[in-house]
Amino acid sequence: MFLSFPTNFFWGTSTAAAQVETAGEHPWKGLVAKDGHIFERTTDHEIHREQDAGFIARFGSVYRCGVDWSRLQTKPMAKFDPAVTDEYCTFFETLQTRGISLMFVMHHFCHPNWFEGMGGWAKEENIRFFVNYAQQCIKHFGKYVSWWNTFNEPNVYAYNAYFSGAFPPFQKRRYFKANRVLDNMGRAHEIVRMLIREKNKNTPVGISLNTAFFKASNIFGLLPALFARWWFLDRAARPFAKCDFWGLSYYAFLLFDPFPVDMIHRPEVVRRLGLPHDKMWLYKPEGLGWVLHRFWKKYKKPIVITENGICTDDGQQRIQALRDYLKVCHEAISAGVDLRGYIHWSTWDNFEWHLGPTFRFGLVRVNLKTMERSMTPAGEFYEKITKQHGVEV
Ligand code: BGC
Q1: In this predicted model, what pLDDT tens digit does every residue of 323-335 receive, in sequence order?
Q2: Selection from 62, 52, 46, 135 nearest residue 102 by Cα
Q3: Which of 52, 225, 281, 330 is most buried, judged by most C-beta within 10 A?
Q4: How far is the C-alpha of 29 from the C-alpha of 352, rounded, in Å?
Q5: How far is the C-alpha of 255 from the C-alpha of 385, rounded, in Å?
Q6: Cα of 191 vs its chain's centroid, Å
């Protein structure tokens, strides 16, 4: 069956600067990932921009990305480095010439070492540094931007940086600090949203919030699953509720027994349960439908899927995931959810944070030795979806 999408629905792909560019002076630089790769040279995007723009242009009309704050601003409140600013402007112009609109992400799990050194997001007085950076982003890059994301997944950032300890500054079980981080990011979001409003009334501003489907697998998991659902989807969203749209990302089905069950930490449990999964999480596309209805019912605001994808080396699994997820999106739209667009993660394979680049999500494959790019069958499949404005399921 062919599922056709509404005329105003858009397609795109996404990456994040830190995951595709050679590391600037930021806290991820030099980190040894789970797969043994060092977070430094990621995918050489900075020297492959033309070629990468060619792939981006084959995947719909929107590209979601950001910039490396640490390369642009080497000191607090400093003027953006002109050479780095030019590098980004040239790239954004290339995209514009190819008819690609930009969804610009200001903060994607990464900021300069000097910002981290001053206490990062845990300190309210540091908000002004982000606001200064954001002002310069608006000034230099605003003319290329069609959608703004002030923050990418503040819930994943606060959880990993201050609770699980997987992200810099690697702090553990600091629940109240994690909440403080969310609230500071929320304050920053609101200030920057107003600044954008002053300059450009019509460019929508939002964040991308990570979502998942949380469930208990036994009685001991009931409370943790309920708590995780509340914290991740409600408590973490609250500081950002003033937005023009909800950007939502979805990848995972999280079971609790009472501890979270995933492929990174507990692959033996996943195998024993015999549940579908990718290299990182349990797989449940219907969970995305549940999330879409939940956000639509609660906020009645337009929604964009800002990230969705699957961690796998198997091209057929990626194609099936596209079919499954888009079927769910189509059903949600038919049921009245105001879903405006779908952005796939990711355009090409990139450095999957603390796990490393062998945790692949790309529609384009990157050879990690030569950095050569090659289109995959899943990439061709997605390209066809964007051209036909629909998917065969
Ligand atoms: C993040 C990306 C990441 C992806 C896959 C999202 O939570 O925004 O940076 O690569 O998930 O794990």
Answers
A1: 999 999 999 999 9
A2: 62
A3: 52
A4: 13
A5: 32
A6: 22
321 CA distance to ligand 1 middle (Å): 16
Q: Residue 347 corresponds to which tokens in the numbers above?
A: 């355009």
Ligand 1 atom 10 nearest Cα: 352
Atom of ligand 1 nearest to the CA of 210: 7
For 69, 110, 177, the CA distances from 133, given in Å and listed in that order, are 8, 13, 23
Which ligand 1 atom lies nearest to the CA of residue 361? 5
Instruction: Determine the number of helices (DSSP H) and then strands (DSSP E) in the chain.
Output: 13, 13
Q: Where are the alpha helices (DSSP H) in the chain?
A: 17-20, 49-56, 69-72, 82-97, 113-117, 127-141, 154-162, 175-199, 222-230, 267-273, 286-299, 315-334, 377-388
Q: Where are the domains of the chain?
A: 2-392
Q: Which CATH class is domain 2-392?
A: alpha beta
* Substitution site in 21, 352, 366 for ligand 1 pocket (most atoms within 8 Å of beta carbon): 352
- Report which secondary-structure segment, H or E, holds 151: strand 145-152
Q: What is the CA radius of gyration of the chain?
A: 20
CB atoms inside a 10 Å sphere around CB 274: 7
Q: Return the bridge partners of 105, or none.
A: 66, 149
CB 154 within 8 A of CB 236: yes
Looking at the DSSP bridge assignments, the partners of residue 63 are 13, 102
pTM, whole model, 2 decimals? Answer: 0.98
Q: What is the pLDDT of residues 112-152, one digit of tens each?
A: 999 999 999 999 999 999 999 999 999 999 999 999 999 99
Distance CA 252, CA 14 (A): 18
Residue with tokens 């608006």: 138
